[in-house]
Design a protein that fits this description.
D-Maltodextrin-Binding Protein, domain 2; Dipeptide-binding Protein, domain 3; 17 helices; 20% strand; SBP_5; peptide transmembrane transporter activity; Peptide/Ni-bd
């Protein structure tokens, strides 16, 4: 984009969920109602218990985000076919220089308690999310706004770069030009909050109040969260279904058994054991879909543990993993081997960024490994309530063979415990990691994960050189002009290897025979506006 005056007024529409750089894949099917379904228009959707309360600025893991996306709508959303950003709550977003933006809200948007969505709703939410003492995980997504550092340090209680003009207009001043800023605005950290949140956060956590297509109904910890369609929703698209039950499973295999038996309406991941030999294609005949999405699977190192401080160790383990063997063994070959940190469908991708470090080179791997003096067995960990053991066992088999050292899977019981170890920097083993895009940009695969202190930087990685490259790329006058700097940062990160990219994601989803018009984005989000129930 040029730096001349332009309007980023992306036409008003509705919808949430789909962030992709390619078209959605849509399949229709129908049939008999799911067994024991007493509420025919409530769609049951698998998930896990959210890590945090459903505050948009604290939702950074996938299962929380998909619930928050049902409850809230932001300034911007993403087209379900083209993935182009377009306005939702915003009527227009205008800038002359990619640094100062004037946002005008569309009229008629309300929260589920009936109060109006105003400029104050966004400004207050963004200030609260970024205020350091509040310790919300999504804070760094707002780091481009002027005054972020003072707010994050607790020296200020509001952004100096936010100014309310009237009920429907506010101005955003960034610390430097950032042409991707409007594209970011569909992510959860930028969603609005009602005044009731600030009056009583505990009450909000118990019963969240959003402005999205579905309103909160109930939460049974460890079991489910239920939402119902919000009849006064301000968007132009309206859900067909009456509601969603986000049903929590301790094991993905249990969710798969339920969808096969038509006792679960939608499963976003078919577990690895059902992929073997294409078993799921028979068990879910006519009600399954295999598709790519904007995600990368990796394993990461806790760099705060001195045992993993040597980059040669990290490089050695990467070259000790036979990615093709792991994918063939665990996923029936249905993944795309990673050649960097960024999938090929993301704007700004360059092929071969990882080079030989992402190739299976057992001799070189052992040579490097032995030079590090690493002691003890190698352990890989993940939460045990998801289907990751098959591929982690396969990865360990190749690591052990290449390096001549025991490698074993050491699981953590639940996702919540797993995330707590990462967030508290108490992880002591190599851990499962990965990323699904918030929006289609190379920037989104680097800044949130590898910048010092970033929102989901679970490794503790910090590189002044990388930070400088990312900052320079962010400040480029147009997104395309920043690509070369993001690409340089990607190469440096891969040399440091805080995380080992394994494969770019391809996923298999399934649904019950009462579910039809299934549309799934490359963000791995079910389009809750399109899906219907028989």
């Amino acid at each position: 984009m040029s730096t001349s005056t332009r309007s980023l007024a992306l036409r008003i529409a509705a919808g949430i969920t789909a962030v992709a750089s390619a078209a959605l894949l849509t399949v229709a099917c129908g049939g008999e109602p799911a067994a024991d379904s007493s509420d025919r228009d409530i769609l049951s959707y698998n998930g896990t218990e959210p890590e945090n309360p459903l505050i948009p600025g604290d939702a950074t893991e996938r299962d929380s985000v998909k619930i928050v996306n049902a409850l809230f709508t932001g300034l911007v959303e993403y087209d379900t076919v083209t993935a182009e950003p377009r306005n939702a709550v915003a009527e227009s977003i205008v800038t002359a220089d990619s640094r100062v933006y004037t946002v005008t809200l569309a009229p008629g948007w309300t929260f589920h308690d009936g109060t109006a969505v105003t400029a104050q709703s966004f400004v207050d939410a963004w200030n609260y999310t970024a205020y350091g003492p509040n310790e919300l995980q999504g804070a760094t997504y707002l780091s481009h706004i002027q005054g972020y550092e003072a707010l994050r340090d607790g020296a200020a209680t509001g952004f100096s770069g936010l100014r309310i003009l009237d009920d429907r207009r506010f101005e955003v001043t960034l610390s430097a030009p950032f042409s991707a800023f409007p594209t970011q605005l569909g992510y959860a950290a930028f969603f609005p909050l009602p005044s009731s949140f600030f009056a009583d956060r505990a009450a909000f956590e118990a019963e969240p109040v959003g402005n999205g297509p579905f309103r909160f109904v109930s939460h049974t910890p460890g079991e489910n969260i239920v939402v119902h369609r919000y009849e006064a929703y301000g968007g132009t698209r309206k859900p067909h279904i009456e509601g969603v039950e986000f049903r929590f499973y301790k094991a993905l295999e249990d969710a798969y058994a339920d969808v096969v038996a038509n006792e679960l309406d939608y499963l976003d991941f078919v577990p690895a054991d059902a992929l073997a030999g294409g078993r799921y294609k028979t068990e879910l005949s006519g009600r399954n879909l295999s598709h790519t999405y904007l995600g990368v699977q990796s394993v990461s190192f806790p760099l705060y543990d001195p045992r993993y401080a040597d980059p040669r160790l990290r490089q050695a383990i990467s070259m000790a993993i036979d990615r093709k063997y792991v994918v063939d063994t665990a996923f029936d070959g249905d993944k795309i081997l990673a050649d960097g940190l960024v999938p090929s469908t993301v704007p700004g991708y360059v092929a071969g960024q990882c080079g030989e470090l992402c190739e299976y080179r057992p001799e070189r791997a052992r040579e490097l490994f032995e030079s590090t003096g690493f002691q003890g067995p190698i352990e890989l960990t993940s939460n045990d309530d998801s289907a990751n053991q098959v591929w982690m066992d396969a990865a360990c088999a190749t690591i052990g063979k290449a390096l001549g050292r025991e490698c074993r899977y050491a699981p953590v019981p639940t996702f919540g415990e797993f995330r707590t170890l990462i967030n508290d920097r108490r992880m002591s083993t190599i851990f499962r990691s990965g990323w699904v895009a918030d929006y289609p940009s190379i920037e989104n695969f680097l800044n949130p994960i590898f910048r010092t202190g970033a929102a989901v930087n679970g490794t503790g990685y910090s590189s002044p050189a990388v930070d400088a490259l990312l900052a320079a790329a962010d400040a480029a006058p147009a997104e395309r002009e920043g690509w070369v700097l993001y690409q340089q940062a990607e190469r440096q990160i891969l040399q440091d290897m805080p995380a080992i990219p394994l494969w770019f994601q391809k996923v298999q989803s399934g649904w019950s025979n009462r579910t039809r018009d299934v549309a799934v984005s490359q963000l791995l989000q079910l389009d809750l506006f399109a899906v219907e129930m028989d």
